[in-house]
């Protein structure tokens, strides 16, 4: 028997209620905040992602890379920001009034070790506001992410923010961090030994118990910010306060991707143990330039839909069920089947969701199916009803039955 590949899963109809609910809120809020939808392909030129991260970065190691029949090296989309920036440049969106505000709901692929909340295919709802360095925009994006998650009914969410500086001030901090870490070399976990050489900021993100004590004493990046970055970070906080958004400063938030500058943030659900982020993002003021565009500041976030569903279930949030069919049309006999077919078609044309029995089953098994579909009404057409041009209308919750003219069934259901 085939199974879905490890780290991926099918989304069964009963799960889809969560997806519709989450996507509905996302689309509604994006419209409210002035973000427009933009869809990018599920695979991109490998170099697009490779360009945005140094060799050995997690995102590069985890990418699904393949060559197509022409020999072009492609990668399944690992995240949404680089493709959106590529589209921004490719379609000349820089010619529009800035910022250009976009959103997306996409699958993302990362070859990670599958565990709860960590999959090889996951889905992200993300927004990107491109072309403006205003700290008010950082605050808007953080507010939007928080409002999205809390409007789903999630409680106990907390926002953590940090600033990781810019090209000018970050190198000084990285030097200080390296200097601080070198005496601890022997005590570092194998991953942190690599991080120290390749990507020191990520040292602060390590979850290994053995590295925690070392992290606690590490210098704080906020003590190394240049005056522009300091002012920007203070302004972001001022706007967040004005918006009534509660946040915590956490100098350990550095994010898993390498394109960030200045503001970075994550939202986590409250609870015991290591909390995994429901969403995160930040500023990436150099990325568009690195992809060949003019210097263009930008900020955005993405939230993981599977992780949100886990949180909704953990918090017992009830989501609206998907709409069910209203009517089930049962029949007995060949002539009745024809009438049933015509009636179902009429119902559907009038916008009444209807299911037609098939397979010439017994009435008992047709009613059993109607029950399991949880329809409001079952309409039964037998030989007698065909002769009289009527149908039996059964209210499935009360069990009451009445005989009505066949031609009036649709208008009757519509009225009710
Ligand atoms: P990210 O933090 O890598 O950021 O991913 C965003 C969200 O996707 C995470 O907070 C998490 O909820 C979810 N996620 C990530 N990896 C997995 C996984 N393996 N399994 C399940 N869920 C996962 C980005 O991707 C950035 N592009 C966000 C951004 C947008 N920054 C600026 N703009």
Please render the helix and strand layout as text:
Layout: H1 13-33, E1 36-37, E2 43-45, H2 46-51, H3 58-61, E3 65-67, E4 73-76, H4 81-90, E5 100-109, E6 121-130, H5 135-151, E7 157-163, H6 170-181, H7 190-198, H8 209-216, H9 227-242, E8 247-249, E9 261-269, E10 279-283, H10 287-290, E11 298-304, H11 305-314, E12 327-331, H12 334-349, E13 354-356, H13 363-373, E14 377-381, H14 383-388, E15 390-395, E16 401-405, H15 409-415
Parallel strand pairs: 1-5, 7-8, 12-13, 12-14
Antiparallel strand pairs: 2-4, 3-4, 5-6, 6-11, 7-9, 9-10, 10-11, 14-15, 15-16
Helix pairs in contact: 1-5, 5-9
Bound molecules: histidyl-adenosine monophosphate.
CATH top level of the largest domain is Alpha Beta
Q: Major sheet: size, sense and barrel closure?
A: 8 strands, mixed
Based on secondary structure, the structural category is: alpha+beta
Mean pLDDT: 95
Between the first and last Cα atoms, what is the distance in angstroms?
47 Å
CATH homologous superfamily (4th level) name of the largest domain: Bira Bifunctional Protein, Domain 2
In percent terms, what proportion of residues is strand? 15-25%
Present as ligands are: histidyl-adenosine monophosphate
- How many DSSP E strands? 16
CATH architecture classification of the largest domain: 2-Layer Sandwich
CA-based gyration radius: 28 Å
Number of discrete helical segments? 15
Query: Segments where pLDDT lies below 50 for 5+ residues?
Result: none
CATH third-level topology of the largest domain: BirA Bifunctional Protein, domain 2
């Amino acid at each position: 028997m085939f199974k879905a590949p490890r780290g991926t899963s099918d989304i069964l109809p009963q799960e889809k209620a969560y997806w519709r609910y989450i996507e509905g809120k996302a689309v509604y809020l994006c419209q409210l905040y002035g973000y427009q939808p933009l869809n990018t392909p599920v695979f991109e030129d490998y170099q697009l992602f490779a360009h945005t991260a140094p060799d050995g970065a997690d995102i590069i190691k985890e990418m699904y890379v393949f060559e197509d029949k022409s020999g072009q090296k492609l990668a399944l989309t690992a995240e949404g920001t680089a493709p959106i920036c590529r589209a921004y440049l490719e379609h000349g969106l820089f010619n529009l009034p800035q910022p250009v505000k976009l959103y997306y709901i996409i699958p993302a692929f990362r070859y990670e070790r599958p565990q709860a909340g960590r999959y090889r295919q996951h889905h992200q709802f993300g927004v990107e506001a491109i072309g403006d360095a205003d700290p008010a925009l950082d605050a808007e994006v953080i507010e939007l992410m928080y409002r999205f998650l809390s409007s789903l009914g999630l409680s106990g969410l907390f926002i953590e923010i940090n600033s990781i500086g810019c090209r000018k001030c970050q190198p000084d901090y990285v030097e200080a961090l390296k200097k601080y870490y070198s005496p601890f070399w022997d005590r570092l976990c194998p991953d942190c030994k690599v991080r120290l050489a390749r990507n020191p900021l990520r040292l602060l993100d390590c979850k290994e118990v053995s590295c925690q004590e070392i992290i606690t004493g590490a210098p704080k990046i906020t003590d190394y910010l240049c005056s522009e970055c300091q002012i920007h970070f203070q302004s972001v906080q001022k706007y967040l306060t004005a918006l009534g958004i509660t946040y915590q400063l956490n100098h350990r938030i550095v994010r898993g991707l390498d394109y960030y500058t200045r503001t970075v943030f994550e939202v986590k659900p409250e609870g015991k143990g290591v909390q995994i982020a429901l969403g995160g993002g930040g500023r990436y003021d150099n990325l568009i330039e690195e992809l060949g565009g003019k210097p263009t500041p930008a900020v955005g976030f993405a939230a993981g839909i599977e992780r949100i569903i886990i949180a909704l279930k953990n918090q017992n949030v009830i989501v609206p069920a998907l709409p069910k069919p209203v009517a089930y049309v049962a029949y007995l006999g060949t002539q009745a089947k024809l009438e049933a077919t015509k009636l179902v078609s009429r119902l559907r044309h009038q916008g009444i969701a209807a299911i037609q029995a098939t397979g010439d089953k017994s009435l008992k098994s047709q009613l059993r199916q109607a029950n399991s579909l949880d329809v409001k009404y079952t309409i039964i057409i037998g030989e007698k009803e065909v002769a009289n041009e009527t149908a039996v209308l059964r209210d499935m919750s009360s069990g009451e039955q009445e005989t009505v003219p066949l031609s009036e069934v649709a208008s009757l259901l519509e009225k009710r």
